[in-house]
Amino acid sequence: MEHDPGAIVPIDLVSVVALCGVVTSLIIQHTGPAVIRIPLGFIFVLFAPGYALAAVLFPYNGNRSKHGAVLTEQEGTWGLITFVERLVVSVGLSVAIVPLAGLVLGYSPWGYNPTVLTVTIASLTIIAAIAGTIRRWTVPSDQRFIVPTVSIPTHFAAFIGKPATSREETLVVVIILGLVVSTAGIGFAATVPGNGERFTEFHIQAQDADSGAIEPDAYPNAWAVAEPVDVVVGLTNQEGETVEYTIVVQQQQLGQTTDGYEVTDRTELDRLDVTVGAGETWSEQLEVIPTESSDNARIAYLLYVGEPPDEPTAETAYRTVHLSAGGDTDETGT
Asked: Rg for the chain (alpha carbons), in Å?
C-alpha cells in the first residue's frame, strides 16, 4: 500500500519551522520590506504557535476513521478534530500563548523586547512542532493527520453548512477561555508594574583622601600635571538584561565661545570594560593621571554600551559625568 508522503514527512510542521526561521531572521537583522514582514509576522504570532501545539494535542486525522472512511458523528472523538476545527483551535491557542509568553518575559532577566519575544515564540513553536511530529509517528499511518488534498474552501463550506456538534461547542468554549486568560494576562501586565523604563544609572563619588570614605564635599577641585585624581565610578544596570559597558575617561580642554564653552581638545586618560548583570550595581575606585592642569579643563567620564566609536565624545556617549575644576560635577547619568 502506498503512503501519502505527508503522512511520513509532516510538510505542515516543516513549513511552520521554516516560518519561524524566516521571521526570526527578519526581526533580528531588521531586514525585509514591510509588505513581507507584516503578513509573515501575523501568521507567526496568531497561528504558528497554536498550530504546532495542536499537532501535539491532536495527532489523528479527524476526517477519516481507522479504515479510511469519513467519520460519522458517533465515531468522532475529542482527539479526532476536522481540518477546519484544527485551524480554529490553532488561532485560539496562539492568542492564549503569545500574551502569556510576553507577560513572563516582562518579569524575566531578559526583559520584554521584540527580539527576545520573537526568539521565545519561535523556540516554543519549534519545540511543539518536533513533539507534534513525534506524536504523529506514534499513530498508525492510515489514522495519522495529514493536510487534506481537497481544497480548503471545500472544508470550510462543509464546516459552516452543517449544524454544530457537541465537540465543536466544546472547542468554542476552549477558545473563549483562552481569550479570557490572555486578556487577563494583558490586563495584569498593564496594571502591575514590571521592569518599567530601561536605563542605566551612572555616577562618580568623591572619596576622602585620608579616610577613604565617600564624602559629597571631597570632589577634587583642582589638579596638576602628573598628580593622580581619584574618584569612585559606579553604575546600576536597569536595562533588564546583562550589559557590556565601556567607560572612557578623557581630559577635555575648554575654549570660550559666544555661546559659552566648547571642547577644543581631548586626551584619553583611561578606558575600562565592565559587564554588569540585570539589576546589579558596580563601582570601583578609578585613578587617572591628568596631562594638563585644571585651568580651562575638565575630566569627563563617558559611558558606552558595547564598544565606543574611534573618537569618543559626550555627544556619542550613552551617559556622561564631568568633573570640573572647582569641585563641580555635571551629570547626565540617568
From this structure: 31
